[in-house]
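Researcher: Structure prediction, please.
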Amino acid sequence: MPQNFKQYYFSPEDQKKFSHTKVSIRDVRSAVTAIDRVLSHGVRHSLAEESDNRIAVLLSGGVDSSLLLGMLKSSTDKEIVCITVLTSETDPDALPAWRTAKSFNATSLKCFLSAEMLPELLQPVLPSSHGGLYETAYDLALSISLQTCKRYGLTNLWTGNGLDMFFGGGLQPSQFGGLSSSRFHRNYWDYTYELLCNRFYKQDGQKLNRLVSKYDVRLHMPFETRETILAAKSIRPDIFFKHGEDKFPIRLLAHRYGVPINVSKRPKLPLQTSSGVFSLLREYMYRELPRLVDDGVNFDLTPAHFRQDPNTDVQLFLSLIAAKPLTESA
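Model: Predicted structure follows.
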């Protein structure tokens, strides 16, 4: 099988170096400079492996993919085609993604995900996502983007995947005792370290490679590098949460690269709860659940359950069909 995607491996040696990395950056300006250096290096390194004159970017309308687009435009004169996966014309990601693509004079392609497409699309992604809600939602968007690449003859797809877990994306300081807590740094990185190990040490990147190889497209995640991780660890973590914004240095850096300010400052919801993906997955669940009646005891769909975590019912459903694939589709 061709190696169309190679996941960064967080080796035991990397983990040891990570554990010994101390805070050395204590102001926003230095943080932005350090992040720019490592991310730019990752982009340039991946570009050096490119031979095509056209590349595709999975542009979600969020700050990470918008920053990637800005860095690419500043580093290459290749034609860039932006692919945005939406669930409707009124999707909240539609306008920010279009504004960002337009600001960089990049071609913008809108691709739509519908409930009718889910049975076919879920079959190949659930083995790699294990039914995880975030992974499934991301892999759905990735699958549609790969299909679009194949349709338009694009052989390289870039994503800004990876910055959330390094720089505080979607997190609240209160989860770690608050910014004023003397243990904030330790609590924050204890939590993030577990995410790093699960994603880059325990996870098998070959499963994602099998998905990508089907379309003969090469997948690039230039932000997911050891240098990015170590740079993040060297920054005082309260800098990530300045002025009530998560990923504050990333947002400043995106604006420096020309990302429109209303996009770089946009508080984007996680993929699995925004853009209608969550609603589509729940619609699919209720349609398919009768087929799994023997396993119905695994579901506790009470009001109290929804209040605790409105995503849990879909998570359970996806995990179940990942372990026990449906024998027929709706």
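Model: The chain has one domain: 12-323.
Researcher: Thanks, that helps.
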